[in-house]
From TrEMBL:
Residue ranges that the Swiss-Prot or TrEMBL entry lists as coiled coil: none
Subcellular location(s) of the protein: Mitochondrion
GO terms under cellular component: mitochondrion
Protein known as: MRP49
Ribosomal protein/NADH dehydrogenase domain boundaries: 51-132
Amino acid sequence: MSQLAAKYTPKITRQIKRVNNLRGRPSSSFKFDASKFKEFEFFIYHQNPYIYKPASGILRLFETALPTLRYHNPDVQFTITKVEVNDPKELLELPLMVKIYGENPENVQTIDCTNKPPHQILNELVELTNARKLKKEEIPFIPLRPTKR
């Protein structure tokens, strides 16, 4: 038997890196109470040729933090509503927001995301929902090399 350490195939290594990236870090990993909140709806604007700078915060949150939030909260539904405009004048009326739907139909909260950076939107979402920050021990990690048995 060879003395060299066992390795995964490159394809498996890429998949492990992707899963480890999805799991996030303790600073960006939160758990929502699924008994209180049933859905989060994100209104996203990303359309060419019209670039709208005030929409960049929620778009960046969608690209970076949302996969991690989905990974740690499989019991909560995350809905993405892509908003489009036909005329640049309509940009000022875009509904750039996050809607938080509670178990009761009357319990709907809204976060206005216009001109806000992604970390501020995430902080407001965590405050409104009293989300629990996950500890490092609670976040699964897959080692890049197989362990010896």
